[in-house]
Amino acid sequence: PASLIILLVLNFFWAASLSAYKVLGANLSVGGIVTLRFGIAGLSLLLLWPWVPGIAPRGRDLLVTCGMGLIVFTLGHRLQVYGNSLSLASNTSVLTAIEPLLAGIAAALFLREHIGPRRMVGFAFGLLGVVLLNGVWRADFHWVGLGASPIFMSSFICEAAFSIVGKPLIARAGPVKVVALSLLVGTAANLLIDGRQTLAAAVALPGPQWALVLTLAWVCTAFGYAFWFLVIREGEVSVAVLTIYAQPVFGVLLARVWLGEQLHWGQFWGSYAIVIGLLIGLSRQIQRPPRSVVGKTSR
Question: What is the pLDDT, as a whole number, of residue 138?
Answer without folding.
Answer: 59
